[in-house]
Amino acid sequence: EAKMAGRNTLCFFDPSMQQAVAERAQLEADLREALVQGEFLLMYQPVVDHGGHVLGVEALARWGHPQRGMVSPATFIPLAEETGLILPLGRWVLHTACALLARWQHEPARAHLTMAVNVSSRQFRDVGFVQEVVRALAETGAPASHLKLELTESLLVEDLLQTVATMEALRAHGVGFSLDDFGTGYSSLAYLKRMPLAQLKIDQSFVRDLLGDASDAAIVRTIIALAASLDLQAIAEGVESEQQRDWLAAAGCTHFQGYLFSRPLPADSLEQWLGRHLGPPPLVSG
Ligand code: C2E
Ligand code: MG
Ligand code: MG
Ligand code: MG
């Protein structure tokens, strides 16, 4: 009888679920193909200080699907993680971002810029990750000191000792770390001081209603104070208005990112944006 009940539960599988499963399988097959066909691209979003000076950029992956158009990373990153495709995809992201970072080293007006790269849990946990980062730096000639890896709180909860060991190994090469989407996860504050972090990124969900929601404002103030007391930079993401920026700056936030300054841009548009903010790159002679 128990067996019958078990079998019956399978009947809850309805046509719309079946369609969702088929749809997912198709997207997964497309994702595999996308890597081979080179359908991914990187957009870059500037990070600025309160005066609007450019400090660096964050690389954000996009998938230009031949039929669906631009697919959001919110859709394909989780799928890539589940299937393991995040490993080759993440390698490509690192390599592409480091190649741009390396180019800036030869241009005095851009040589100070940092490059932030998002790293997912599965990628970070891979045994070859440290070597992969070291290789991307070596092959492109990008300076380790200008590379910032963005991690999320879930990594801390999963295996703190291993996480800290991997971070220390990369830190020894000069690579820096930010904790992304801070405040949305479950990390204990005690973990923070054990990690070689440089930055806390205040999640945009707290920034959004900062001016209207007293509890969001309190959370943001707390994160900024925490960052200051741990000697970390506080960076606010999702800044869309001058009022938000001014509030954040008055509260002690030093780094800003958001549509107020720029949307994520493809490499050539970024170069033009940087040209307007930092002056044009020198003409190549010869
Ligand atoms: P994230 O790292 O927290 O990136 C910030 C997200 O906020 C980006 O979304 C960015 O486009 C968006 N954003 C920036 N400024 C504003 C603003 O002023 N207002 C609003 N409403 N949104 C803003 P995006 O590019 O869709 O990326 C979503 C997430 O996907 C990222 O969140 C990151 O977790 C993940 N992701 C993106 N690229 C990669 C990648 O190469 N590797 C991995 N592992 N994850 C990635
Ligand atoms: Mg990020
Ligand atoms: Mg974030
Ligand atoms: Mg976020």
Question: Can you characterise this structure?
Answer:
- This is Diguanylate cyclase.
- It comes from Pulveribacter suum.
- The chain is α/β, with parallel strands linked by helices and 286 residues long.
- Helix content is 50%, strand content 19%.
- Strands 1, 2, 3, 4, 5, 6, 7, 8, 9 and 10 form a ten-stranded mixed sheet that branches.
- Helix 4 packs parallel to helix 6.
- The chain is globular, with a radius of gyration of 21 Å.
- The protein binds ligand C2E and magnesium ion (MG) (3 copies).
Tag the structure with descriptive keywords.
10-stranded mixed beta sheet, binds magnesium ion, alpha/beta, binds ligand C2E, 286 residues
Concise summary:
This is Diguanylate cyclase. 50% of the residues lie in helices and 19% in strands.
Query: Bound compounds, please?
Result: ligand C2E, magnesium ion
| Mean residue pLDDT | 91
Helix count equals 13
What fraction, in percent, of the residue positions are helical?
A: 40-55%
What structural class should be given to the helix and strand makeup? alpha/beta
Largest sheet: 10 strands, mixed
Which word captures the global form? globular
- Determine the N-to-C terminus distance: 84 Å
Any idea what the radius of gyration is? 21 Å
Unreliable segments (pLDDT under 50, ≥5 consecutive)?
A: none
Using DSSP, what is the number of strands? Answer: 10
In sequence order, what are the helices and strands, one letter per element? Answer: HHEEEHHEHHEHHEHEHHEHEEH
Strand content: 15-25%
